[in-house]
Amino acid sequence: MSDKRQDYISWDEYFMGVAILSGMRSKDPNTQVGACIVSEDNKILSMGYNGFPMGCSDDEFPWTREGDPLENKYFYTTHSELNAILNYRGGSLEGAKLYVSLFPCNECAKAIIQSGIKTIVYESDKYAMTPSTVASKRMLDAAGVKYYQYRHTDREVKIVL
After folding, report:
1. How far is CA 85 from CA 47, 69, 91, 117, 146, in A?
2. Taking the model in full, what pTM does it have?
3. CB neighbours (10 Å) of residue 150?
4. How many helices (H) and strands (E) does the chain have?
5. For the chain, percent of residues with pLDDT exceeding 90
């Protein structure tokens, strides 16, 4: 008979927590998205969050969402999923699982498919009806990438630093 504790967190809780914590590094004043890539044997391979590429100062590039395309964030920011893929230095991501706090856009879906990631666990799908997300799901389905929404538990996790 085992006396191990029974209230430990699941793998999905653990890795989604890491993704959300990673997103807290984003300096975007409106949207903070985090991602965590995990191997088939539940080892963290890489993490990322949305922000500007290295060498592009987050004090000099715009964070606004509206106005002239050259004066808002959309041409300049790198999404969390792409950052996590590009941050990985270990070789192939074939068969990996991606935890992400927001469903991937069409551009990130392309990178996910090309990198060999086979499963996506996402927290929010608030842009489900936008053309970008519809296109993303169409490509992911065609490429055989599985995805499912993270199921929240009632567990409260508090990190005190």
Report:
1. 8, 26, 10, 9, 17
2. 0.93
3. 18
4. 4, 5
5. 87
Please choose, from the candidates 87, 88, 85, 62, the residue with its C-alpha nearest in 3D space to the C-alpha of residue 75.
62
Are 77 and 65 in contact by the 8 Å Cβ rule? The answer is no
Mean pLDDT, to the nearest integer, of 101-118? 98
- Do the beta carbons of residue 55 and residue 73 sit within 8 Å? no
pLDDT value of position 134: 98
Q: What integer is the mean pLDDT of 106-129?
A: 97
User: CB within 8 A of 84, min separation 6: which ones?
Assistant: 35, 36, 37, 46, 47, 48, 98
Identify the CA nearest to 48 among candidates 111, 139, 114, 116.
Answer: 111
Q: Is 37 exposed, middle or buried (0-12, 13-18, 19+ CB in 10 A)?
A: buried
Alpha-carbon distance of 103 to 135, in angstroms, equals 12
Catalytic residues: 81
119-124 sheet: strands from edge to edge: 44-49, 34-38, 97-102, 119-124, 146-149
Q: Which two tokens stand for residue 55?
A: 């060498």
User: Can you give the C-alpha Rg of the chain in angstroms?
Assistant: 17
